[in-house]
Every structure is written in C-alpha cells, then in structure tokens.
Amino acid sequence: MSRSKAQKPTSRGTAVIDSEARASESVASSAVSRALTAAVADVCAEWPHTEHGATSASDVRTTVNALADNVRQALNGEALTLVAFPPFVPVRRALELLRRAFLERTESPDVVSAGEASVLEVIKAIERVQQSIDQDAAHRFAARLSGQDAQQLVVEMAHDMRSPLGSILILAERLRYGSGGTLTPIQERQLGLVYSAAFGLSALAGDVIELARGGTTLMDQPRMPFLVSDVLQSIMDILRPMAEEKRLVVRCVGPEADLRIGYQAALNRVLLNLATNAIKFTNAGSVDVTCRQIDRSRVEFSVKDTGRGIPPHVITNLFEAFRQRQITGDYAFSSAGLGLSICKKLIVAMGGELGVETELEKGTRFHFVLDLPQGSRL
What we know:
Layout: H1 2-45, H2 57-75, H3 91-105, H4 109-114, H5 116-145, H6 150-176, H7 185-212, E1 224-227, H8 228-245, E2 249-253, E3 259-262, H9 264-280, E4 286-293, E5 298-305, H10 312-315, H11 338-349, E6 355-359, E7 363-371
Parallel strand pairs: 2-4
Antiparallel strand pairs: 1-3, 4-5, 5-7, 6-7
Helix pairs in contact: 1-2, 1-3, 2-3, 2-5, 3-5, 6-7, 7-8, 7-11, 8-9, 9-11
C-alpha cells in the first residue's frame, strides 16, 4: 500500500511537468511565429525596388506571405503546397530576404528565451521550402524543354545571349582601333582576347539559332560576287589574338582569282568555325587556311593544323549536332558539336562535301571543294 501511495504523487508530478513543457513549447512557438510574421512585414517594407523595379508591392506581399505559409507547413510536417507565384518576383531572392529578416528578429528577448532549437527548426523549414522551389523550377524547366515550345525556348535563350555579346564586340572593336586613345601592346592583346572570347560565345549562340532553323539560313539570299581575300582577312582579324596567346603561326592563302560568285556569309562561317577549332586543339606549330584554285570555277578550301589529331572513336560521330563524351575529359570539338554540324550542313547546301584527314599527334586537315565561278566585277 505504501508503495502504491508513493507512486501517485510521481504520476501527478509527471503530468504537471508535461503540462509545463507543453506550455513552454507553446510560448516558444508563439514567439517564433511572431518573429516570422514580423520578418514578412520587414521584407515587404524593405523590398529593394531599385533592384527589382518590375515588381508591385501587392505581388511582393503575395509572394512573401505564400513563402511564410510554406515555412509554417514545413514546421508542422505538412506537405508543401507551392502556389503559382506572381510573375516578375524573384522567389529565391524573396526567400533569402525572409531568412535574413527572421534571423534579425531572433535577437529579440522573447525569441532568445524560446531557445536555439526553435530557431533552428524554422531555418530547417526555410531550407526545405528552398529545396522544394528548386525542384519545382527544375521540373517546370525540364517540362518546357521537352514540350512543344522547346525549340523556341532554346532560340530565345540564344538570342538573349547574343544581345549583350554584340555590345561587347562593338565596344572592344572600337577600343582596338583607337576610339578611346592610344593603346599599349598589352592592352591591344587583352582587348583582342576579349573580342575573340565574346565572338566565340556569340558564334555559339548563332550556331544554336542556325541549327534550330535548319542550318542553312545563311544561304537564303542569292549568290553574290565577293572577294575571297575579304573573307580571309575578316577571319584573320578574329583568329590573330587567339593564335598569339598560344604562340601559334596562322597563315591564309587565297586563290589566284580573288573575285568569286557564291555565298560569302556561309563560307565565312564555315572557315571561321574550322579555323577556330584548329587553334583550340593545337598547342604548338601552325594553322593554315588555304584556298587553292582547281580550275576556273572550282576552289578547294582547307584548314590544316599541327595539333593532336582526332581519335578514331570520335570520327564516327564528329558531325553530329549533339554528342556526349564517351569518357570524361575525352576529345571533342565542343560539348555539343554544333559548329561542325553547321559546317557540314552549309557545305552540302553549297554543293560540296566536308572531308577530314587526321593523324594522332600530327594534326588534322578539313577540306572541301566549292563551285565558285569567277566574277567580272563587284
């Protein structure tokens, strides 16, 4: 009996302790909840409108409140219900500002008394919301890439790349030719490298657009008279800084008859892509762009380098538009192969055939023959 009587106070004592613990947790939860609500107000009031001028105050409030609701769902162990956030509001940025504002609010006495554990739970909940947003965005992006408008999306992205790159090219070109004053040799070399890098990215974006539209839009216009020497000179202007950086010799040789009738823009694109690849994969020696007259109309073009050559297993899919490396770090002209694919399409459309001769550690030679009648005058 005495033992049974001794147990009763213990049971009542435990109940009291549990009740006090729940009350304490409730107080802590309330304090943290108030801090989160205050953080929402802070973000809405201090939203950097100068940085995100396209957003309205109501859109910001809708977004931040929805994010806070998701944080509360995560705290309660519920499934997150991501909503369609208003357009033009950078959701990740809003969540990061909410996290910072909440941490600033945790310095208040009532939150401090709630303990670090409660604060950490909110931080973990914010991280869970972040992961859900990233996963949702990745799924939506993947869905669009595999949808009917995938091609248009890629073209739009390539256009968006070319716009700022075009500005860089214009500015670099003007500076190279003295619009900003006399340049030192080092400055000339650095500007040349900037121009070459920007041109390479712009050309890649152009290849994406060209491939999406069939690969031969450069030949939409009729054949026109042009000077082969003009094509070679424009190529040399771009290649020279790249070659100088790698201490390579670049030579261009034109045909006996310079004035020809054909597709100048398409020929320029092909020779530039091939020569750029040659420089990219040549560490010592030279790159030669040669135009040899076969007869009155036909001209053989070739780009020869002293680089490392192309392995046999790469040759089999060399001209495929999209290819993957079989081995990490293995040889490839690019991760996608767009440049060579465009070259082949354009050459075939001009009536030629792109051939390749290569030997490991000796070099590679790309070549093709085009029918380019001699012109009488420009």
